[in-house]
């Protein structure tokens, strides 16, 4: 299926003959060292395999003014370039509507009237993870739906839209983690506030841009099976995945801006060798530039454990 026709073409040069990788940050603040390391690795995976490298701004939810520009500037300062076009999700809502319409027409979407509190309080299946959606609204009859819809409207809310999944286990292959498995629940496609959900937008945009390689933090590994399954539902070839280890703070939590000097500009101001640290923490020598990293990069040598970073004083 030509998904660029169904879900809206992304203008610009066609994908490279060997496909494309991508980096897709939310513009919610400056990139910290963990984000920068993932950016570098995503670019290396793409360029080392002869792929194009795309950049997507995922601005449907968390946005801070000026963040998208500062993230792009940090990449440029590190010597990482990307192939046009620059994709902005808020400009692509028609593509998500088209994908949702395709699934709806096949009877694979249903309205959900539950609040987060309702879901947390509901009993779940014996083997389901805590907080998993229990299928409350999946099989309501039309009278029940009409009543629930009216109650939400009176409260100024609208239903979320969920995928009517097969409720089976899905799989995806990861170049670093091996086979990933996850139960296919009725996950959200569009939230009750009208915002399209990450799983839908990511799959649609990757398909439209010819992305066949997804390199990202391993905190998102559990999303890969459901995204691969959704891609197949939409006639999109699922990408190859490589989920790289996160950078953690001294406490063992995911690195965050509250941990101190962690952004590129903060670290540079302290004279910290950002390239050297990224190279060593990834299992290589102290890189000095992207060109040097590309000449040495071998996915087989990539460290498989999280890196711990203690910001300089």
Automatic annotation (TrEMBL):
Domain Glutamyl/glutaminyl-tRNA synthetase class Ib catalytic: 22-266
Domain of life, per lineage: Bacteria
EC top class, as a word: ligase
EC number: 6.1.1.-
GO cellular component terms attached to this protein's record: cytosol
Family: Belongs to the class-I aminoacyl-tRNA synthetase family.
InterPro entries noted in UniProt: aa-tRNA-synth_I_CS, Glu/Gln-tRNA-synth, Glu/Gln-tRNA-synth_Ib_cat-dom, GluQ/Sye, Rossmann-like_a/b/a_fold
Organism of derivation: Brevibacterium rongguiense
NCBIfam families (UniProt xref): PRK05710.1-4
GO MF: ATP binding; glutamate-tRNA ligase activity
UniProt keyword annotations, A-Z: Aminoacyl-tRNA synthetase, ATP-binding, Ligase, Metal-binding, Nucleotide-binding, Protein biosynthesis, Zinc
PANTHER family named in the record: GLUTAMATE--TRNA LIGASE (PTHR43311), GLUTAMYL-Q TRNA(ASP) SYNTHETASE (PTHR43311:SF1)
Ribonucleoprotein in keyword set: no
Protein's recorded name: tRNA glutamyl-Q(34) synthetase GluQRS
GO annotation, biological process: glutamyl-tRNA aminoacylation
Pfam families in UniProt: tRNA-synt_1c
């Amino acid at each position: 299926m030509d998904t660029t026709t169904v879900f809206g073409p992304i203008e610009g040069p066609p994908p490279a003959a060997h496909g494309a990788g991508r980096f897709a940050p939310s513009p919610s603040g400056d990139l910290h060292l963990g984000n920068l390391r993932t950016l570098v690795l995503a670019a290396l995976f793409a360029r080392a395999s002869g792929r194009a490298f795309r950049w997507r701004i995922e601005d449907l939810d968390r946005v801070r003014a000026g963040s998208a520009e500062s993230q792009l500037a940090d990449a440029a300062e590190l010597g990482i370039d990307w192939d046009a076009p620059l994709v902005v999700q808020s400009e692509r809502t028609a593509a998500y509507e088209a994908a949702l319409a395709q699934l709806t027409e096949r009877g694979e979407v249903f309205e959900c009237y539950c609040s987060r509190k309702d879901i947390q309080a509901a009993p779940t299946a014996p083997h389901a993870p805590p907080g998993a959606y229990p299928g409350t609204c999946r099989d309501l009859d039309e009278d029940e739906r009409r009543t629930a819809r009216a109650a939400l409207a009176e409260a100024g809310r609208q239903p979320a839209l969920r995928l009517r999944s097969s409720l089976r286990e899905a799989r995806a292959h990861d170049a670093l983690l091996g086979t990933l498995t996850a139960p296919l629940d009725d996950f959200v496609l569009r939230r009750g506030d009208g915002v399209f959900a990450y799983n839908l937008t990511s799959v649609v945009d990757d398909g439209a841009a010819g992305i066949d390689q997804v390199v990202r933090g391993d905190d998102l590994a559990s999303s890969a099976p459901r995204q691969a399954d959704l891609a197949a539902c939409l006639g999109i070839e699922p990408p190859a995945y490589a989920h790289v280890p996160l950078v953690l703070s001294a406490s063992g939590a995911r690195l965050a801006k509250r941990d101190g000097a962690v952004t590129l500009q903060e670290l540079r101001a302290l004279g910290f060798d950002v390239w050297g640290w990224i190279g060593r923490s990834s299992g290589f020598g102290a890189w000095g530039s992207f060109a040097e990293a590309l000449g040495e990069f071998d996915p087989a040598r990539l460290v498989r454990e999280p890196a711990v970073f203690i910001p300089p004083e």
